[in-house]
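Journal club side-thread
Mid-discussion, someone asked how the predicted structure for our own chain would compare to the paper's figures. Pasting it here so we can look after the session.
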Amino acid sequence: MASFKRYFFRASILLGMLFVAPSLARLNEKVTKGVINDICSKTQNLTFCLGVLNQAPGASTADLPGLAKITIDLATSNATETLQIIQSLVPKTTNTKLKEGYATCSEHYDNAIGDLGDARQHLKTGDPMGVNLSASASMDEAGDCNDELKGLPADPSVLKGNQDLNNICSIILVIANRIPR
């Protein structure tokens, strides 16, 4: 009976290692051209993704969590720049509907930046699902801003900021899905 318990215990440990080891290996997976190509092939905009990840400082030497952090930082920077553009346009805009649209977009971008901060926290605590949900929420905020400006003579830089934030968050989603839970 004791040998059966010992055998069962050893078998349980071996099975546990078989399931955990691949996850740990993937967590420390180094980002190679192949990994970047695979990530980008699953995003909304392959060309944009390749441009971002191939030019991002530190991306080629990072592991998956490191690449997620770099990409979250890029999204935060994009959202902050777009928010500053929106805030600078509000006082200059004479079209009442457009002014209201910009004011609402400003709120959406405040929320998007907060969502990206949440994504960063989830990444620190090893919660890739939380990263995914927060990045998705940030994408929603950019989409909501786009909806606010639909049919209005909005500044093209704001619309580009919305699209860029959406594309960068798409990259975050794919990376987060590759990080073991």
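Post-session note: Residues 1-29 form one domain.
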